[in-house]
Design a protein that fits this description.
Blueprint (H helix, E strand, L loop, with lengths): L1 H19 L9 E3 L3 E8 L3 E10 L7 E6 L4 E4 L10 E9 L5 E11 L5 E11 L17
Parallel strand pairs: 2-8
Antiparallel strand pairs: 1-3, 3-6, 4-7, 5-6, 7-8
């Protein structure tokens, strides 16, 4: 019985050592040129678009699996093809301020196969009331009797 236990443990130890010594795949890594776009003050209803430039600073192909936003007012677009090491690409995010007011911080989460599986960038702005049309002078005349 002891021989069987020793034999099983030996196989398990050998499998563990072989797995630990297996070469790993080169890993991708994402690096953003700028992680926050501050649009300052914008009028309610205005639409702004931020372009986030990024680079694959790793040694393997970078694949963006998803780009998620905090609400439906921000719509991202990103390349679906793998990005080779050393190459650059762009993610765009369009923020529609309709129905928003005050300080806004729209966080965009980037999911990838990079060293950090999640990265975040953001759009910041202060939404002010829309311009109200100027009051038109009343040119109507009084009815004559």
């Amino acid at each position: 019985m002891k021989k069987i236990v020793v034999l099983v443990l030996s196989f398990l130890l050998a499998a563990f050592v072989a797995n630990a010594q297996a070469p790993s795949e080169p890993q991708a890594d994402i690096s953003f040129e700028k992680s926050t776009f501050d649009f300052g003050e914008i009028k309610q209803g205005q639409v702004v678009t931020a372009t986030f430039k990024y680079k694959n600073t790793g040694k393997g192909p970078l694949i963006l699996s998803n780009v998620a936003t905090t609400c439906g007012c921000t719509v991202p677009a990103w390349p679906k093809e793998p990005l080779a090491p050393g190459k650059s690409a762009e993610i765009t995010a369009t923020f529609n301020s309709a129905g928003k007011m005050g300080q806004q911080n729209k966080v965009i989460t980037v999911f990838s196969n990079g060293k950090s599986a999640q990265s975040q960038v953001s759009i910041v702005c202060n939404v002010t009331p829309p311009d109200t049309p100027a009051t038109q002078p009343n040119n109507a005349t009084e009815p004559k009797n």
